[in-house]
Amino acid sequence: MPQTQDFPATLSRRRLTQWLVAGAAMPLVASCGGDAEAKTYPVRFTDAEWKKRLTPPQHYILRQKGTERPGSSPLDHEKRKGTFVCAADGNPLFASTTKFDSGTGWPSFWKPLPGAIGTSTDYEVGMPRTEVHCARCGGHLGHVFDDGPKPTGKRYCMNGAAMVFRPA
């Protein structure tokens, strides 16, 4: 009889352990595929060359997948007509007509320009997110979420330091 009483508790602990191990392994499994860095892009440089071409904050975000502090980018408040381009290679990314104030502290857009971006899945925070990167150089721009405005319902939440604004 005692074995029968212990069996459900043992099963619960075993199941919990399996879930914990699976959760801890998820980032490792995710790093085996879908990484923007693993692809070949038309614009390529060595890390030393990227460091010469970019400011330290740009290099941190674009090449090391960093994130700037919310509210730190002047591009979050940019309201002129024009185009937001990749700071690494000048690739046009977003038209100013698709920019909106998401209240997050990062420049946000509801639609990229055609062929401007690529996406991949990252697990950096322990759950899947859709990373957005430049289609020409593979530089990390930010992430896209499904809580944006119509007509797309998307929120492309971008790091301002990853972009440069070109007025019309």
Description:
The protein is α+β, with helices and mostly antiparallel strands and 168 residues long. Helix content is 27%, strand content 24%. The protein has three helices and nine strands, in the order H-H-H-E-E-E-E-E-E-E-E-E. The chain has a six-stranded antiparallel beta sheet with strand order 3-4-8-7-6-5. A three-stranded antiparallel beta sheet has the order 2-1-9, with no helix packed on it. Strand 1 (82-86) and strand 2 form a beta hairpin. The protein starts with a helix and ends with a strand.
Short description:
It is built from three helices and nine strands, in the order αααβββββββββ. The protein has helices spanning 2-30, 47-53, 56-64; strands at 82-86, 92-95, 99-100, 108-109, 117-122, 129-134, 140-145, 155-158, 163-167.
In percent, how helical is the residue content? 25-40%
Structural class based on helices, strands and sheet pairing: alpha+beta
Proportion in β-strands: 15-25%
Spatial extent as radius of gyration: 20 Å
| Span between termini | 80 Å
- Can you summarize the main beta sheet? 6 strands, antiparallel
Q: Which shape, going by the Cα principal axes?
A: globular
Low-confidence stretches: 25-35
Number of helices: 3
Q: Please state the average pLDDT score.
A: 86
E-strand count: 9
Biggest sheet, spatial arrangement of strands: 3-4-8-7-6-5
